[in-house]
Amino acid sequence: MPTDPSPPQISLPQVDYLLTDATVYDGLGTAAVRADIAVLGDTIAAIGTNLVLHYHAGMVIDASGLAASPGFIDIHTHSDLSVLVTPLFDSSIHQGVTTEVSGNCGMAAGAMTSSGDFAFERRWLERSGVTLSWDTFGGFLDRVEQEGTAINICSLVGHGTLRKLAKGSTEGKADAGEIAIMQRAVADAMASGAVGLSTGLEYLPGGYADLDEIAPLAQIAHEAGGFYASHIRNEGDTLIESVTEAIAVGRQTHIPVQVSHLKAEGHKNWGKVRAALGLMADARADGFDVLTDQYPYAAFMTGLSVILLPKWALAGTPDDIARRMVSTTDRDKIRSEILADPLDWTKVQVGIARVRREAQGLTLEQLGALDGKHPVDSALDLLRDERGWVSAVHFALSDEDIETVLRDPHTMIGSDGVAASPTGAMGDDKTHPRSYGAFPRVLGAYVRDRSVLSLSDAIRRMTSLPASRLGLIDRGRLAPGMKADITLFRPETVADTATFDNPQQFASGIEYVFVNGRLALSGGVQRDIRPGRVLRRRGGTVI
User: Fold this and answer.
1) Does residue 156 belong to any structural domain of this protein?
2) Which of 146, 359, 366, 429 has the fewest CB atoms within 10 Å distance of its CB?
3) How far is the C-alpha of 305 from the C-alpha of 317, rounded, in Å?
4) Counting beta carbons within 10 angstroms of the beta carbon of residue 228, is it exposed (0 to 12), middle (13 to 18) or buried (19 or more)?
5) What domain count does the chain have?
6) Widest CA span in the chain
């Protein structure tokens, strides 16, 4: 007796990963949806419901209870200083970060050379086991590419670094010939893939420059499709004038402007961020592209010399600064000027001190007590012993200002950190906790706990907004055809755990991180792989 034929076997398309039942945030600020995500190679193959019926997966991950977001883009870092030391980007991966923009604040490792002008930078790198072996921006990017990295990285070219190439660390305005040298260097860097130009006008030698020097360099970067990110000249008493100066570069050259880590330093300046945001809004109303970025901590980290010393004492190299700590005449003058308007010694905490590790984590008041000296004398001794460079944390910012800046829809999230690891060459450094916790802190403290932002909008600030600034056309959103940079986290537990006393602690609640379709963090545990890419600007896009 004939029987019915067996039903035909349907062969399902193969994918590498299937993330099921996730709460999917597309990165654009729209409401989340429950959906599955299929990943094939380095690309998102599909997003929809019941994809298990449509695809056969090499690995299925139950994402129920997890938020699925585009991988976070850290728009403001200094990880070009650590990428060859900590290529696994441990602190970044555990935050859910899959792309970083380095070369900020006028300092770019890619623009450094093996010349004597960069003796300090070479010494810093060599302490971590890295030899400065490149003499071109492209050569630096090539080396990073060859050695591999766990996340994607791109870089701005730093004006302060270029100025050292053209004029050394000497004071004064750059002449036409020196500006021409810097213009050629910007053009070369942009041709090699730099994403724009940065300045650090609070620091020397970058701070010697004026608009007449900066604008011609910004014009070159703009013509190549880049943007201008500025650590402005002053973030305290003359904050408003300094923001106006940054916007003036955009008004003169039409380059997109990014005011770096907007804040107001010092109690008497708290509240000025509202006027600064108003200046940016006015510029946008006039048709100019102006954004800002922010890290969510009420303390900043920079060189102790920058916090402590009068401007004239910062001239030259770190070794020049150290020599002033030995010269009786210079030191007495420095001491007198500091004490004429003294800091609160309890509000400045020693960060990274590579020679005198025992000083790390101490306030200047505690350091003075340890040494049996006035805090200013202990601080000057420390600068002498560290050969002019030691980092410090200054608790001088306002929580209310942080929330004000964070609420502005044109604010991106940037850690201002350096990728680090609790182990290895940088494991003993007392770094700022932002390197480990900036993004989870926004999601936990400012979204879940304080309701300053909605979760979908916070994710937009971390993904599609910086992607748009960079010209990243295939990252920053969750959609079929986009690169599979994906972060899955638990909204009810995501949090920063790093503190100023114990900064090298991984965040909690970040469960899975995909970089270019490869699983870099699984169940909160990092894998020893380097799936990241060096992203380079090509005209108006970054690939």
Assistant:
1) no
2) 146
3) 12
4) buried
5) 2
6) 113
pTM: 0.96
Q: At which residue do the structure tokens 């971390």 appear?
A: 462
CB distance 123 to 73 below 8 Å: no
Distances (CA, A) of 199 to 133, 192, 210, 217, 446: 24, 19, 11, 10, 29
286 by Cβ neighbours in 10 Å (0-12 / 13-18 / 19+) ranks as exposed
Which of 402, 390, 295, 401 is CA-nearest to residue 349? 390
Asked if 206 and 309 sit in the same domain, the reply is no
Report the 10 Å Cβ neighbour count for 52.
15
Q: Which helix (H) or strand (E) holds 439?
A: helix 434-441
pLDDT digits (tens, 9 = 90+) for 257-283: 999 999 999 999 999 999 999 999 999
In a domain, 25, yes or no: no
Domain of 201, in residue numbers: 170-259+262-299+398-410
For the stretch 492-507, pLDDT in tens is 999 999 999 999 999 9
Look up tokens 């724009």; give the residue.
196
Asked whether residue 504 is domain-assigned, the answer is no
Q: Report residue 152 as tokens.
A: 């994607």
Q: Would you say 260 and 104 are in contact if contact means Cβ atoms under 8 Å apart? A: yes
Asked whether residue 151 is assigned to any structural domain, the reply reads no
Report the mean per-residue pLDDT for the chain: 95
Residues 294 and 314 in one domain: no
What is the CATH number for 270?
Answer: 3.20.20.140
Indicate if 200 and 287 belong to the same structural domain.
Answer: yes
Cis preceding linkage at 205, omega within 30:
yes
Phi-psi region of 524 (alpha: psi -120 to 50; beta: other; left: phi over 0): left
pLDDT in the model for residue 299: 98
